[in-house]
TrEMBL record:
WD repeat locations: 169-210, 211-252
UniProt keyword list: ATP-binding, Kinase, Nucleotide-binding, Repeat, Serine/threonine-protein kinase, Transferase, tRNA processing, WD repeat
SMART domains associated with the record: S_TKc, WD40
The protein's Enzyme Commission number: 2.7.11.1
Highest taxon above the source species: Eukaryota
Lineage: Eukaryota, Metazoa, Ecdysozoa, Arthropoda, Chelicerata
Protein name, UniProt field: non-specific serine/threonine protein kinase
Species of origin: Dermatophagoides pteronyssinus
């Protein structure tokens, strides 16, 4: 690829390691991701890292696509320049949809997200590395996963758990401080410094409810032995009892 940075369009995003530009691949609208040089790194190390990370991201995208995960198609790769040219997708982020009201998102969407994560981890055997709601695009033909800049060509219990924790944290505005699994392992409750409690259905990767729980951060959460109730405690010295399936308050 000659002069990969020549004639770029609008700069869409600038991050700590890369920038995203609009461009054309022939007559087709595309995006160009450029890993630019960082002056704080030794030039030789910088060049090597940019090359390796560009190669790794291209391989992750190809492997995910082969496994049936919806990801942008890669058109061109220039490892030496740290450049990927890929498909431009039209759609909104999951983070924007959640901000508009997660309770309004259809169960079918959560199921598709769960199936996408399963395919990513167990069919493609990949770890995303930054699985926030901003890296899911809701397009007309389905859910796409984007930005594999921190992706790894391996998947195990630990790396999958880190991906899922990153995903669940996106539904809290501040750090998560409490996690609890139901006895049947189908439901997960998360509490955070943002004073919120979220209840998840892990079968569908679906957010069931998001509740304003305490006046101060949540410090503990636990399900009852039969799973019908969830108890949460806060640093405001309060304890609340919730319906373990729906999140409705029963006692405080």
């Amino acid at each position: 690829m000659q002069n990969p940075l020549e004639g770029l369009g609008v700069l869409l995003f600038s991050g700590a390691e890369s920038r995203i530009y609009e461009c054309l691949d022939g007559a087709q609208p595309a995006l160009l991701k450029h890993r630019y040089s960082r002056s704080y790194r030794h030039p030789e190390l910088d060049g090597r890292l940019r090359k390796l990370r560009t190669r790794a991201e291209a391989r992750c995208l190809a492997k995910a696509r082969k496994a049936g995960v919806r990801v942008p198609e890669v058109f061109k790769v220039d490892e030496a320049a740290g450049v990927l040219v890929m498909q431009k997708l039209e759609g909104g982020t999951l983070s924007a949809a959640v901000a508009a009201g997660p309770e309004n998102l259809k169960p079918a969407l959560w199921r598709e997200i769960g199936e996408t994560l399963h395919a990513l981890h167990f069919k493609a055997n990949l770890t995303h590395g930054d699985l926030t709601t901003s890296n899911f695009l809701l397009c007309s033909d389905g859910v796409y996963v984007i930005d594999f800049g921190l992706g790894e060509m391996r998947s195990n219990a630990e790396t999958c758990a880190v991906d899922l924790l990153c995903f669940y944290k996106a539904f809290h505005t501040k750090p998560v401080t409490a996690l609890a699994f139901s006895p049947c392992l189908r439901f997960l409750a998360s509490g955070g410094v943002d004073k919120l409690i979220c209840i998840w259905d892990l079968h569908d990767c679906r957010l069931i409810n998001k509740m304003a729980s305490h006046q101060k951060p949540v410090c503990h959460a636990a399900f009852s032995p039969d799973g019908k109730h969830l108890a949460s405690a806060g640093f405001d010295n309060s304890v609340k009892l919730w319906n373990g399936y729906t999140g409705g308050t029963t006692k405080s």
